Amino acid sequence: MAKYLLLKHYRGAPAPVNNVPMDQWTPEEVSAHVQFMHDFAARLEKTGEYVDGQGLSPEGTFVRYDGEGRPPVTDGPFAETKDLIAGWMVIDVDSYERALELAGELSAAPGAGGKPIHEWLELRPFMAAPPVITE
Amino acid sequence: MTSENSVTSMPAEVNEALIRSLAPSVLGVLVRRGADFAAAEDALQEALIEAFRGWPADPPRDAKGWLTTVAWRKFLDASRAEAARRRREGRADEEPAPGPAPSVDDTLQLYFLCAHPSLTPSSAVALTLRAVGGLTTRQIAQAYLVPEATVAQRISRAKRTVSTARFDRPGDVATVLRVLYLVFNEGYSGDIDLAAEAIRLTRQLAAAIDHPEAAGLLALMLLHHARRAARTAPDGSLVPLAEQDRGRWDTAAIAEGIEILQAALARDRLGEYQAQAAIAALHADARTAAETDWPQIVEWYDELAALTDSPLVRLNRSVAVGEADGPRAGLAALAPLDGSLPRYAAVAAYLHEREGDVATAARLYTEAAAKAANLAERDHLTRQAARLNTRRRR
């Protein structure tokens, strides 16, 4: 019973094995990829391990406080950031090993030529509730 | 006072606790009447939801009778719908065989079934909370911060897994206790108080089975629950045991925990929950942190280490050794342990500070904060590092 974030990057992660940009795939390959993602989420819903999944637009803005009475300062889009998050899936599983297994399966989503992308996914544990018994 | 007045003045939570406490026995009746476990559990869940909705305004005179009648009706409705569906699909001959009639105590068998060793911990927890605890799927989902559909799937899969398990065979007490321990120790405090629920279910189990470890677990829960009000400051930050306002400990819960523990220990069948409860009892017994009987706590950790051989027990033992024989002895006890253990850096930081090595302690507190598995501990450890770093700059 631990939650993990599977984080997918537009950029910032090491290069995948099957490193062909999506706009260079055939339309059928794009559809197959999208279908794989849907099926993966649906399977986790059935196993009772699914919590959430969202995609993020690559467009975004940095915002910061600029002092009392001033509008916030904005900057962007993130032209110079190295790391750009594409989306995430949150799972609730019984062990770290199970989280690794699922992340590995998700990384095998098909890409160019219908072959697995071998994409690097970031696996991050959620902070849990503090346990009652610690001594 | 008219009955109507007494009804409207009855708080809803009293009703809910009553409704929930009836869940296992009603489920037992349904199974005894021939319903299979999975269908009976679904029917009970529907009846419970109806009761939660209707009883606060219109409580029945015979609560158990009402729940049994409604759950049985739900079961019959579902069976008829299922039979009709099978007929439509030309599979009328595939009627399921009636479930076996349970012979011994229904409630106890239910605990064993819901914590069946073939289930994963999260499935066993969800099924136990619903079938034995009488919680709704939604309440369980809220308590664990997962979608309701996820919990529903977990429960229906769990029921499929145990559907082949015999309902009349004694199960494994250790797995039941493990599930209840998990309910007590892990989960978020939302509308449902999981710790209180775990105590209620463990109390019910300890009454149904003659087992010193069931009593030990109940004592352990009561003794830790007794400190709950003192464990967190108003801003939500953790208050370490040594700094807790002991006047805020629940003395009734402590007294009950100690009494249950002593009766269990007298049986001379020591187990890990009794040993853990003994350590909690020694803390509860001390009027001030300085009066804590650390040498005896070290002895109990030795017992616990012999029972479980857990590296986490040895880690906690080194803290106790540090208190009993000084920080240098504590660090010596810590030295052979694996540095990647959770809380290793936090324990090392504490012992180094007590020994006077503030620089090392500050560095280790920072390291411990980065490794913390929850926000309250991370913030606490960060404050410790900040405190020492500020002192060093002066």
Number of strands of chain A: 6
CATH superfamily of chain A: Dimeric alpha+beta barrel
**CATH topology-level fold name of chain A:** Alpha-Beta Plaits
Provide the low-confidence segments of chain B as ranges.
Answer: 1-10, 94-104
Through-space gap between termini of chain B: 69 Å
Class by alpha and beta content of chain A: alpha+beta
Q: What is the string of SSEs of chain A from the N terminus onward?
A: EHEEEEHE
Domain unit count of chain B: 4
Tell the overall outline of chain B: elongated
Please name the two chains that share the biggest interface, counting residues whose Cβ lies under 8 Å from a Cβ on the partner chain. Answer: A-B, 23 and 46 residues
How many beta strands in the DSSP annotation of chain B? 0
Poorly predicted tracts of residues of chain A: none
Indicate the mean pLDDT of chain B: 90
The computed structural class of chain B is mainly alpha
Proportion of helical residues of chain A: 10-25%
* Total helical segments of chain B: 20
Largest sheet of chain B: none
List the helices and strands and how they pair.
The complex is a heterodimer of chains A (135) and B (394).
Chain A: E1 2-11, H1 27-47, E2 50-55, E3 62-64, E4 73-75, E5 84-93, H2 96-107, E6 122-125
Antiparallel strand pairs in A: 1-5, 1-6, 2-5, 3-4
Chain B: H1 3-9, H2 12-32, H3 37-54, H4 63-88, H5 106-114, H6 121-132, H7 137-144, H8 148-162, H9 173-185, H10 194-208, H11 212-225, H12 228-231, H13 251-265, H14 272-285, H15 294-308, H16 311-325, H17 327-334, H18 344-355, H19 358-371, H20 375-393
Helix pairs in contact in B: 2-3, 2-4, 3-4, 5-6, 6-8, 6-9, 7-8, 9-10, 9-11, 10-11, 11-13, 11-14, 13-14, 14-15, 15-16, 16-17, 16-18, 17-18, 18-19, 19-20
Q: Care to give the gist of this entry?
A:
The complex is a heterodimer of chains A (135) and B (394). Helix content of chain A is 24%, strand content 27%. Chain A is built from 2 helices and 6 strands.
